[in-house]
Write a structure and sequence with these properties.
The structure is a single chain. The protein has about 450 residues and is an all-alpha fold. The chain contains 18 helices and no strands. Helix 15 runs antiparallel to helix 16. The chain is globular.
Protein backbone atom coordinates (compact mmCIF):
# COMPACT_ATOMS: atom_id res chain seq x y z
CA UNK A 1 0.00 0.00 0.00
CA UNK A 2 1.34 3.43 -0.82
CA UNK A 3 1.41 6.39 1.51
CA UNK A 4 -1.91 8.12 1.08
CA UNK A 5 -1.89 11.68 -0.21
CA UNK A 6 -4.37 14.29 0.82
CA UNK A 7 -6.75 15.77 -1.71
CA UNK A 8 -5.78 19.30 -0.86
CA UNK A 9 -2.50 20.64 -2.10
CA UNK A 10 -1.34 17.42 -3.65
CA UNK A 11 0.85 16.77 -0.65
CA UNK A 12 1.82 13.39 0.71
CA UNK A 13 2.01 13.04 4.48
CA UNK A 14 3.54 10.02 6.20
CA UNK A 15 1.13 10.39 9.11
CA UNK A 16 -1.91 9.94 6.97
CA UNK A 17 -2.61 13.63 6.47
CA UNK A 18 -2.67 14.61 10.15
CA UNK A 19 0.63 16.38 10.23
CA UNK A 20 1.75 19.81 9.11
CA UNK A 21 4.56 18.67 6.80
CA UNK A 22 3.88 18.96 3.08
CA UNK A 23 5.84 16.71 0.75
CA UNK A 24 6.17 17.30 -2.99
CA UNK A 25 3.35 16.00 -5.16
CA UNK A 26 5.63 13.51 -6.89
CA UNK A 27 6.30 10.18 -5.25
CA UNK A 28 9.55 8.32 -4.88
CA UNK A 29 10.28 4.91 -6.33
CA UNK A 30 9.35 3.20 -3.08
CA UNK A 31 5.93 4.91 -3.13
CA UNK A 32 5.10 4.18 -6.73
CA UNK A 33 1.54 3.07 -6.11
CA UNK A 34 -1.10 5.69 -6.87
CA UNK A 35 -2.39 7.67 -3.89
CA UNK A 36 -5.91 7.32 -2.58
CA UNK A 37 -8.05 10.33 -3.57
CA UNK A 38 -11.60 9.02 -3.36
CA UNK A 39 -13.72 7.05 -0.96
CA UNK A 40 -14.18 3.32 -1.61
CA UNK A 41 -17.41 2.11 -3.27
CA UNK A 42 -20.46 2.83 -1.12
CA UNK A 43 -21.21 -0.86 -0.50
CA UNK A 44 -17.64 -1.87 0.32
CA UNK A 45 -17.20 -0.45 3.82
CA UNK A 46 -20.50 -1.96 5.10
CA UNK A 47 -19.56 -5.30 3.50
CA UNK A 48 -16.12 -5.15 5.12
CA UNK A 49 -17.82 -4.40 8.43
CA UNK A 50 -20.06 -7.46 8.00
CA UNK A 51 -17.12 -9.67 7.00
CA UNK A 52 -14.97 -8.41 9.87
CA UNK A 53 -17.75 -9.01 12.38
CA UNK A 54 -18.43 -12.50 11.04
CA UNK A 55 -14.73 -13.40 11.12
CA UNK A 56 -14.03 -12.12 14.63
CA UNK A 57 -17.26 -13.71 15.89
CA UNK A 58 -15.72 -17.12 15.27
CA UNK A 59 -13.19 -16.44 18.02
CA UNK A 60 -15.96 -15.83 20.58
CA UNK A 61 -18.45 -18.62 19.83
CA UNK A 62 -17.04 -20.80 22.61
CA UNK A 63 -17.61 -18.29 25.42
CA UNK A 64 -21.32 -19.01 26.11
CA UNK A 65 -20.72 -22.71 25.37
CA UNK A 66 -17.86 -23.29 27.80
CA UNK A 67 -19.90 -25.18 30.39
CA UNK A 68 -21.43 -27.45 27.72
CA UNK A 69 -18.05 -28.06 26.06
CA UNK A 70 -16.57 -28.85 29.46
CA UNK A 71 -19.27 -31.44 30.11
CA UNK A 72 -19.08 -32.90 26.58
CA UNK A 73 -15.28 -33.30 26.63
CA UNK A 74 -14.78 -33.78 30.41
CA UNK A 75 -12.82 -30.56 30.97
CA UNK A 76 -12.66 -29.23 34.56
CA UNK A 77 -13.83 -25.70 35.41
CA UNK A 78 -10.29 -24.51 36.06
CA UNK A 79 -9.23 -25.46 32.52
CA UNK A 80 -12.27 -24.22 30.61
CA UNK A 81 -10.41 -21.03 29.75
CA UNK A 82 -7.90 -23.07 27.76
CA UNK A 83 -10.54 -23.55 25.03
CA UNK A 84 -10.67 -19.77 24.57
CA UNK A 85 -6.93 -19.36 25.13
CA UNK A 86 -5.85 -21.68 22.28
CA UNK A 87 -8.03 -19.67 19.90
CA UNK A 88 -6.49 -16.41 21.08
CA UNK A 89 -2.96 -17.82 20.81
CA UNK A 90 -3.72 -18.86 17.24
CA UNK A 91 -4.99 -15.34 16.67
CA UNK A 92 -1.75 -13.86 18.04
CA UNK A 93 0.32 -16.08 15.74
CA UNK A 94 -1.79 -15.04 12.76
CA UNK A 95 -1.33 -11.37 13.60
CA UNK A 96 2.44 -11.78 13.41
CA UNK A 97 2.59 -14.08 10.38
CA UNK A 98 -0.47 -13.38 8.22
CA UNK A 99 -1.56 -9.75 8.73
CA UNK A 100 1.79 -8.31 7.49
CA UNK A 101 1.05 -9.97 4.14
CA UNK A 102 -1.53 -7.21 3.62
CA UNK A 103 1.39 -4.87 2.87
CA UNK A 104 3.01 -7.36 0.49
CA UNK A 105 0.27 -9.14 -1.47
CA UNK A 106 -2.82 -8.21 -3.43
CA UNK A 107 -5.45 -7.50 -0.76
CA UNK A 108 -8.34 -9.06 -2.68
CA UNK A 109 -6.64 -12.42 -3.10
CA UNK A 110 -5.33 -12.40 0.47
CA UNK A 111 -8.68 -11.54 2.08
CA UNK A 112 -10.78 -13.97 0.07
CA UNK A 113 -8.21 -16.77 0.38
CA UNK A 114 -8.07 -16.46 4.17
CA UNK A 115 -11.86 -16.37 4.39
CA UNK A 116 -12.05 -19.61 2.41
CA UNK A 117 -9.54 -21.31 4.71
CA UNK A 118 -11.39 -19.97 7.76
CA UNK A 119 -14.56 -21.64 6.50
CA UNK A 120 -12.69 -24.96 6.33
CA UNK A 121 -11.30 -24.54 9.87
CA UNK A 122 -14.82 -23.86 11.19
CA UNK A 123 -16.03 -27.00 9.44
CA UNK A 124 -13.27 -28.98 11.18
CA UNK A 125 -14.28 -27.52 14.57
CA UNK A 126 -17.91 -28.46 14.02
CA UNK A 127 -16.92 -32.04 13.21
CA UNK A 128 -14.23 -32.44 15.91
CA UNK A 129 -14.46 -35.92 17.51
CA UNK A 130 -12.52 -35.08 20.68
CA UNK A 131 -11.11 -32.24 22.76
CA UNK A 132 -7.65 -32.41 21.13
CA UNK A 133 -9.15 -32.11 17.65
CA UNK A 134 -11.42 -29.28 18.83
CA UNK A 135 -8.54 -27.32 20.30
CA UNK A 136 -6.49 -27.80 17.14
CA UNK A 137 -9.36 -26.66 14.93
CA UNK A 138 -10.04 -23.65 17.15
CA UNK A 139 -6.37 -22.69 17.06
CA UNK A 140 -6.65 -22.64 13.25
CA UNK A 141 -9.86 -20.62 13.50
CA UNK A 142 -7.99 -18.04 15.58
CA UNK A 143 -5.04 -18.05 13.18
CA UNK A 144 -7.26 -17.35 10.15
CA UNK A 145 -9.74 -14.99 11.84
CA UNK A 146 -7.04 -12.31 11.72
CA UNK A 147 -8.31 -11.62 8.21
CA UNK A 148 -10.54 -9.10 10.02
CA UNK A 149 -7.48 -6.97 10.78
CA UNK A 150 -6.35 -7.14 7.16
CA UNK A 151 -9.79 -5.82 6.23
CA UNK A 152 -9.54 -3.00 8.83
CA UNK A 153 -6.22 -1.97 7.29
CA UNK A 154 -7.76 -2.16 3.81
CA UNK A 155 -10.67 0.07 4.84
CA UNK A 156 -8.21 2.61 6.28
CA UNK A 157 -5.99 2.50 3.18
CA UNK A 158 -8.92 2.92 0.78
CA UNK A 159 -10.34 5.95 2.61
CA UNK A 160 -9.00 9.54 2.47
CA UNK A 161 -7.39 10.72 5.75
CA UNK A 162 -10.18 13.21 6.48
CA UNK A 163 -12.74 10.38 6.65
CA UNK A 164 -10.50 7.56 7.83
CA UNK A 165 -11.65 7.66 11.44
CA UNK A 166 -15.26 7.27 10.32
CA UNK A 167 -14.43 4.33 8.08
CA UNK A 168 -12.38 2.59 10.79
CA UNK A 169 -15.22 3.28 13.22
CA UNK A 170 -17.77 1.70 10.86
CA UNK A 171 -15.68 -1.42 10.29
CA UNK A 172 -14.82 -1.71 13.98
CA UNK A 173 -18.51 -1.26 14.78
CA UNK A 174 -19.12 -4.33 12.62
CA UNK A 175 -16.54 -6.21 14.65
CA UNK A 176 -18.24 -5.21 17.91
CA UNK A 177 -21.63 -6.24 16.56
CA UNK A 178 -20.17 -9.54 15.40
CA UNK A 179 -18.74 -10.25 18.85
CA UNK A 180 -22.07 -9.49 20.49
CA UNK A 181 -24.12 -11.50 18.01
CA UNK A 182 -21.60 -14.35 18.28
CA UNK A 183 -22.69 -14.97 21.85
CA UNK A 184 -26.39 -14.65 21.09
CA UNK A 185 -26.28 -16.76 17.91
CA UNK A 186 -24.11 -19.42 19.55
CA UNK A 187 -26.57 -19.71 22.43
CA UNK A 188 -29.64 -19.99 20.21
CA UNK A 189 -28.10 -22.50 17.79
CA UNK A 190 -26.69 -24.60 20.63
CA UNK A 191 -30.12 -24.86 22.25
CA UNK A 192 -31.84 -25.66 18.94
CA UNK A 193 -29.35 -27.97 17.24
CA UNK A 194 -26.35 -28.53 19.50
CA UNK A 195 -23.00 -26.78 19.79
CA UNK A 196 -21.67 -28.27 16.53
CA UNK A 197 -24.32 -26.38 14.53
CA UNK A 198 -22.72 -23.10 15.68
CA UNK A 199 -19.48 -23.80 13.81
CA UNK A 200 -21.06 -25.49 10.80
CA UNK A 201 -23.46 -22.59 10.17
CA UNK A 202 -20.63 -20.07 10.53
CA UNK A 203 -18.58 -21.96 7.93
CA UNK A 204 -21.37 -21.41 5.40
CA UNK A 205 -21.67 -17.69 6.20
CA UNK A 206 -17.92 -17.11 5.85
CA UNK A 207 -17.86 -18.92 2.49
CA UNK A 208 -20.63 -16.65 1.12
CA UNK A 209 -18.80 -13.53 2.30
CA UNK A 210 -15.60 -14.70 0.61
CA UNK A 211 -17.41 -14.88 -2.73
CA UNK A 212 -19.04 -11.47 -2.23
CA UNK A 213 -15.78 -9.72 -1.39
CA UNK A 214 -14.06 -11.36 -4.33
CA UNK A 215 -16.47 -9.45 -6.57
CA UNK A 216 -16.37 -6.06 -4.83
CA UNK A 217 -12.99 -5.56 -3.15
CA UNK A 218 -10.54 -3.74 -5.44
CA UNK A 219 -7.07 -5.25 -5.79
CA UNK A 220 -4.29 -3.57 -3.82
CA UNK A 221 -0.75 -3.03 -5.04
CA UNK A 222 2.00 -2.63 -2.42
CA UNK A 223 4.56 0.16 -2.71
CA UNK A 224 7.66 -0.51 -4.77
CA UNK A 225 9.95 -0.83 -1.73
CA UNK A 226 7.67 -3.33 -0.03
CA UNK A 227 7.34 -5.40 -3.20
CA UNK A 228 11.13 -5.82 -3.15
CA UNK A 229 11.17 -6.96 0.49
CA UNK A 230 11.35 -10.56 1.59
CA UNK A 231 8.56 -11.95 3.74
CA UNK A 232 10.95 -12.47 6.67
CA UNK A 233 12.13 -8.88 6.63
CA UNK A 234 8.56 -7.66 6.28
CA UNK A 235 7.56 -9.54 9.44
CA UNK A 236 10.70 -8.37 11.26
CA UNK A 237 9.88 -4.78 10.37
CA UNK A 238 6.74 -5.05 12.51
CA UNK A 239 8.96 -5.47 15.57
CA UNK A 240 11.17 -2.60 14.37
CA UNK A 241 8.17 -0.30 14.06
CA UNK A 242 7.09 -0.93 17.64
CA UNK A 243 10.66 -0.66 18.93
CA UNK A 244 11.09 2.80 17.41
CA UNK A 245 7.69 4.40 17.96
CA UNK A 246 6.67 4.98 21.62
CA UNK A 247 3.08 5.66 20.51
CA UNK A 248 2.74 2.11 19.17
CA UNK A 249 4.09 0.56 22.36
CA UNK A 250 1.87 2.67 24.62
CA UNK A 251 -1.28 1.99 22.64
CA UNK A 252 -0.37 -1.70 22.40
CA UNK A 253 0.03 -1.94 26.18
CA UNK A 254 -3.33 -0.21 26.64
CA UNK A 255 -4.90 -2.76 24.28
CA UNK A 256 -3.41 -5.65 26.27
CA UNK A 257 -4.87 -4.39 29.56
CA UNK A 258 -8.23 -3.30 28.14
CA UNK A 259 -8.88 -6.60 26.37
CA UNK A 260 -7.66 -8.58 29.38
CA UNK A 261 -10.47 -6.88 31.31
CA UNK A 262 -12.92 -7.53 28.45
CA UNK A 263 -12.02 -11.22 28.27
CA UNK A 264 -12.13 -11.57 32.05
CA UNK A 265 -15.83 -10.70 31.97
CA UNK A 266 -17.00 -12.52 28.85
CA UNK A 267 -14.91 -15.67 29.32
CA UNK A 268 -15.99 -16.03 32.95
CA UNK A 269 -19.60 -14.90 33.06
CA UNK A 270 -21.03 -18.16 31.67
CA UNK A 271 -20.14 -20.01 34.89
CA UNK A 272 -22.13 -17.91 37.41
CA UNK A 273 -25.02 -17.49 34.95
CA UNK A 274 -25.33 -21.23 34.25
CA UNK A 275 -25.42 -22.14 37.94
CA UNK A 276 -27.63 -21.18 40.89
CA UNK A 277 -29.32 -18.84 41.50
CA UNK A 278 -29.81 -18.06 37.79
CA UNK A 279 -29.30 -21.39 35.93
CA UNK A 280 -29.73 -19.71 32.53
CA UNK A 281 -29.90 -21.58 29.21
CA UNK A 282 -27.37 -21.20 26.38
CA UNK A 283 -29.74 -18.81 24.63
CA UNK A 284 -30.14 -16.60 27.69
CA UNK A 285 -26.40 -16.53 28.40
CA UNK A 286 -25.57 -15.73 24.78
CA UNK A 287 -28.30 -13.10 24.49
CA UNK A 288 -26.98 -11.46 27.65
CA UNK A 289 -24.03 -10.27 25.63
CA UNK A 290 -26.42 -8.00 23.73
CA UNK A 291 -26.50 -5.82 26.83
CA UNK A 292 -23.14 -4.60 25.60
CA UNK A 293 -24.53 -3.40 22.27
CA UNK A 294 -23.50 0.09 23.30
CA UNK A 295 -20.04 -0.98 22.22
CA UNK A 296 -21.10 -0.78 18.57
CA UNK A 297 -22.37 2.75 19.18
CA UNK A 298 -19.10 3.66 20.89
CA UNK A 299 -17.08 2.56 17.85
CA UNK A 300 -18.86 5.03 15.55
CA UNK A 301 -18.81 7.85 18.11
CA UNK A 302 -15.12 7.34 18.85
CA UNK A 303 -14.32 7.42 15.13
CA UNK A 304 -16.03 10.79 14.74
CA UNK A 305 -14.33 12.17 17.87
CA UNK A 306 -10.96 11.09 16.50
CA UNK A 307 -11.62 12.91 13.25
CA UNK A 308 -12.22 16.03 15.41
CA UNK A 309 -8.90 15.63 17.26
CA UNK A 310 -10.38 14.40 20.55
CA UNK A 311 -8.46 11.13 20.82
CA UNK A 312 -6.92 11.95 24.19
CA UNK A 313 -10.24 12.83 25.77
CA UNK A 314 -11.90 9.73 24.29
CA UNK A 315 -9.20 7.50 25.79
CA UNK A 316 -9.43 9.03 29.26
CA UNK A 317 -13.22 8.87 29.43
CA UNK A 318 -13.23 5.31 28.09
CA UNK A 319 -10.72 4.02 30.62
CA UNK A 320 -12.51 5.71 33.52
CA UNK A 321 -15.79 4.05 32.47
CA UNK A 322 -14.00 0.71 32.16
CA UNK A 323 -12.81 0.87 35.76
CA UNK A 324 -16.25 1.96 37.02
CA UNK A 325 -18.01 -0.85 35.13
CA UNK A 326 -16.73 -3.47 37.60
CA UNK A 327 -18.74 -2.02 40.48
CA UNK A 328 -22.12 -3.22 39.09
CA UNK A 329 -20.52 -6.33 37.56
CA UNK A 330 -19.47 -7.38 41.06
CA UNK A 331 -23.20 -7.68 41.94
CA UNK A 332 -23.92 -10.31 39.26
CA UNK A 333 -25.04 -12.96 41.75
CA UNK A 334 -27.51 -10.50 43.28
CA UNK A 335 -28.91 -8.80 40.18
CA UNK A 336 -28.89 -9.45 36.44
CA UNK A 337 -29.71 -5.78 35.92
CA UNK A 338 -26.45 -4.88 37.61
CA UNK A 339 -24.57 -7.16 35.22
CA UNK A 340 -26.38 -5.60 32.26
CA UNK A 341 -25.42 -2.08 33.34
CA UNK A 342 -21.82 -3.12 33.89
CA UNK A 343 -21.67 -4.87 30.51
CA UNK A 344 -22.95 -1.74 28.75
CA UNK A 345 -20.30 0.42 30.42
CA UNK A 346 -17.52 -2.09 29.80
CA UNK A 347 -18.26 -2.71 26.11
CA UNK A 348 -18.74 1.00 25.42
CA UNK A 349 -15.42 1.81 27.08
CA UNK A 350 -13.44 -1.00 25.42
CA UNK A 351 -14.57 -0.17 21.91
CA UNK A 352 -14.09 3.59 22.33
CA UNK A 353 -10.48 3.02 23.35
CA UNK A 354 -9.96 0.37 20.66
CA UNK A 355 -11.10 2.60 17.78
CA UNK A 356 -9.02 5.48 19.12
CA UNK A 357 -5.97 3.25 19.31
CA UNK A 358 -6.35 1.95 15.75
CA UNK A 359 -6.92 5.39 14.25
CA UNK A 360 -3.85 6.84 15.97
CA UNK A 361 -1.46 3.99 15.24
CA UNK A 362 -2.41 3.82 11.55
CA UNK A 363 -1.54 7.52 11.25
CA UNK A 364 2.05 6.80 12.32
CA UNK A 365 2.84 4.96 9.07
CA UNK A 366 -0.13 4.57 6.68
CA UNK A 367 2.08 2.71 4.19
CA UNK A 368 2.69 0.06 6.87
CA UNK A 369 -0.92 -0.11 8.03
CA UNK A 370 -1.26 -3.91 7.96
CA UNK A 371 1.94 -4.45 9.91
CA UNK A 372 1.10 -1.82 12.51
CA UNK A 373 -2.45 -3.05 13.07
CA UNK A 374 -1.23 -6.65 13.11
CA UNK A 375 1.42 -5.87 15.72
CA UNK A 376 -1.06 -3.88 17.79
CA UNK A 377 -3.56 -6.73 17.73
CA UNK A 378 -0.91 -9.10 19.11
CA UNK A 379 -1.20 -7.11 22.32
CA UNK A 380 -4.98 -7.45 22.07
CA UNK A 381 -4.74 -11.22 21.63
CA UNK A 382 -2.28 -11.67 24.49
CA UNK A 383 -4.56 -9.64 26.73
CA UNK A 384 -7.59 -11.69 25.70
CA UNK A 385 -5.72 -14.94 26.42
CA UNK A 386 -4.56 -13.65 29.79
CA UNK A 387 -8.09 -12.60 30.73
CA UNK A 388 -9.66 -15.90 29.64
CA UNK A 389 -7.18 -18.08 31.51
CA UNK A 390 -7.06 -15.81 34.55
CA UNK A 391 -10.85 -15.65 34.74
CA UNK A 392 -11.33 -19.44 34.81
CA UNK A 393 -8.56 -19.92 37.37
CA UNK A 394 -9.90 -17.10 39.57
CA UNK A 395 -13.43 -18.52 39.46
CA UNK A 396 -12.23 -22.02 40.33
CA UNK A 397 -10.19 -20.61 43.23
CA UNK A 398 -12.50 -18.03 44.85
CA UNK A 399 -15.62 -17.63 42.73
CA UNK A 400 -17.07 -14.53 41.07
CA UNK A 401 -15.60 -11.98 43.56
CA UNK A 402 -12.10 -13.03 42.50
CA UNK A 403 -13.05 -12.59 38.83
CA UNK A 404 -14.29 -9.05 39.43
CA UNK A 405 -11.14 -8.14 41.36
CA UNK A 406 -9.05 -9.43 38.47
CA UNK A 407 -11.03 -7.46 35.87
CA UNK A 408 -10.95 -4.28 37.96
CA UNK A 409 -7.19 -4.65 38.39
CA UNK A 410 -6.62 -4.82 34.65
CA UNK A 411 -8.87 -1.77 34.15
CA UNK A 412 -7.18 0.36 36.82
CA UNK A 413 -3.75 -0.59 35.45
CA UNK A 414 -4.82 0.66 32.01
CA UNK A 415 -6.08 3.95 33.47
CA UNK A 416 -2.82 4.43 35.38
CA UNK A 417 -0.73 3.67 32.29
CA UNK A 418 -2.66 6.22 30.23
CA UNK A 419 -2.39 8.89 32.96
CA UNK A 420 1.40 8.49 33.23
CA UNK A 421 2.14 8.29 29.49
CA UNK A 422 -0.41 10.66 27.92
CA UNK A 423 2.31 13.16 26.99
CA UNK A 424 4.70 10.55 25.64
CA UNK A 425 5.06 8.96 22.23
CA UNK A 426 3.84 11.82 20.08
CA UNK A 427 4.15 11.03 16.35
CA UNK A 428 7.26 12.70 14.96
CA UNK A 429 9.49 12.28 18.07
CA UNK A 430 11.59 9.63 16.37
CA UNK A 431 14.47 9.74 13.94
CA UNK A 432 14.08 8.41 10.45
CA UNK A 433 12.70 4.87 10.56
CA UNK A 434 13.93 1.98 8.48
CA UNK A 435 11.16 -0.14 6.99
CA UNK A 436 10.94 -2.63 4.15
CA UNK A 437 11.04 0.31 1.72
CA UNK A 438 14.32 1.46 3.30
CA UNK A 439 16.58 -1.34 2.09
CA UNK A 440 19.98 -0.30 0.79
CA UNK A 441 19.58 2.14 -2.04
CA UNK A 442 16.41 3.87 -0.83
CA UNK A 443 16.07 6.90 1.39
CA UNK A 444 14.63 6.58 4.89
CA UNK A 445 11.29 8.21 5.57
CA UNK A 446 11.49 11.67 7.08
CA UNK A 447 9.89 12.04 10.51
CA UNK A 448 6.55 13.84 10.49
CA UNK A 449 5.58 16.37 13.13
CA UNK A 450 1.86 16.79 13.62
CA UNK A 451 2.43 19.97 15.61
CA UNK A 452 1.88 20.82 19.26
CA UNK A 453 -1.08 19.39 21.08
CA UNK A 454 -1.40 16.24 18.99
CA UNK A 455 -3.07 13.39 20.89
CA UNK A 456 -1.13 10.35 22.01
Amino acid sequence: MAIECSDAGGGCDGTGGTGGHQAPATTSARDASPPVHASPPARLVPLLALACGSSVATVYFAQPLLVTLGERFAVGSGLLGVIVTVTQLGYALGLLTLVPLGDLLDRRGLVTGQLGLLALALLAAGLAPGVAALRGALAMVGLLAVVAQTMVAAAAALTPPARRGRAVGTVTGGIVTGILLARAAAGVLADLAGWRAVYLASAGVIAVLAVSLRRLLPPGTPSAGVREASYGRLVASTVTLFARHPLLRIRGALALLVFAAFSTLWSGVAQPLSGPPWSLSHTAIGAFGLAGAAGAVAAGVAGRWNDRGLAQRTTGVGLALLALSWLPIALTRQSLWALAIGAVLLDFAVQAVHVTNQTLIHAVRPDAGSRIIGGYMVFYSVGSSLGALGSSLAYATAGWPAVTVLGASFSLAALLLWATTRRMGLPGDNPAVELPGSWPGSAPQEPRNPGPGAPV
